[in-house]
Amino acid sequence: MSDLFAAFGIDWRLLLVNGVNFGLLLLGLWYFLYKPLTNMLEARRQKMAQGVHDAEAAAHELGKIEEARAGLLAQAGKEADEVVSRARALGAEKQRALVEAGEANAATLLTEAEAGAKQLKEETIAQSKQEVAKLIVLGMERVALEGSTSKK
Length: 152
Prior knowledge:
Layout: H1 2-8, H2 12-151
């Protein structure tokens, strides 16, 4: 076999040294380049997987928050409707009370005005009767005076 190597011009010692050098180079490249590169790629893959997981969790939380927000908005809408209906009912009740009070006040004022008018009418009639009585007395005195002057 050494004749075969000699025929092709291959020195087995150089071949062995070159093989050892190639092995050392391969070991160095694997240790200093391939291993850090695979570690970096694995870390990046894990970060991406964690990012996808976090995005899914965030989407799930966003769905929960949207659902809770919709529930709160619905509840707030119901409460607002209840407040508005209570306010309308209270306003209608207050309006009725004010109308009743106004009507009662108007009726009282009307009754007082009628009583005042009746009293004023009675006073006016009484004064008129007194005036008529005075006029009758004066008229009779005049007739009596004229009758007594005409008899003379």
